[in-house]
Amino acid sequence: MSWFASLRRRWRRPAPVPDGLWRDTLAALPFLAALDGAELTRLRVLCQHFLAEKEFSGANGLVVTDAMALSIAAQACRPLLHLHGPDGRPVRHPPDLLDWYDDFVGIVLQPGAVLARREVRDHAGVVHEYTEALAGEAMDGGPLMLSWEDVASAGERAAIGHNVVIHEFVHKMDMRELQVGEHPQGAPTLPDGFLNTRDTRAARAHWQRVMKDAYEGFREAVALAERFGGEPPWLDDYAAKDPAEFFAVTCEAYFVSRERFGRGFPALLTLYDGFFNASAAS
Predict the structure, then answer these.
(1) pTM assigned to the model
(2) What domain of life does the UniProt record list for this protein's source (predicted)?
(3) What domains lie within the chain, and their CATH numbers?
């Protein structure tokens, strides 16, 4: 977003989040309990600006309440807490972290999952059509769709590493630098000095190497479970679809079930600490 947007944030006085509503939101999202007082204050400020910048609309008769909007804001802003700016540099004004989400305004809430028609062309050129149930969808340069049924169960689903809000907003991070015709690859802009790498090229190479190893290992585990009756992975096997989905699904688990995630993906834990949480990586 332009410098004008940053200046506008400095002048804006977004509506404060009522204390009672904030407490209720935190109680419904127990994975936020690990945050300390300063982090919760920072998260609350981010939420206030997020709510001032985004527009919520309900579909199929769903009425969006303040509680629903705040729940989404809190989950969407959680990955931003210790993040660098989308240019790779630290931000001086915390609300400017919302630049990561600056390519869209609208958030559409559906009561439940949405059935979408899909087409895929195989290696022989044959087009196959199928129907996919979507709990959320992030469109490059466009609005974001979420199933309220899935959002509302975020507290319970954290135990299995699921969080549809974080999933879709991480997709937005991944899409931010895409050129026309490109597809997300699970490779967002890395911070300057990422994990003590010497330059941007070395940082990118390290990210790609660790992600590739983890992705291939996960796909192998899924294949063993499906073909030979092996123990299925803890994470949703949707992560085996492609690198972008692997990034989004593993980020869900990283934020909502960190200890369990770290046991299954120790190399990714270090990688994501370096990206999302510089203090944990230092």
Answers:
(1) 0.91
(2) Bacteria
(3) 3-281 (1.10.472.150)
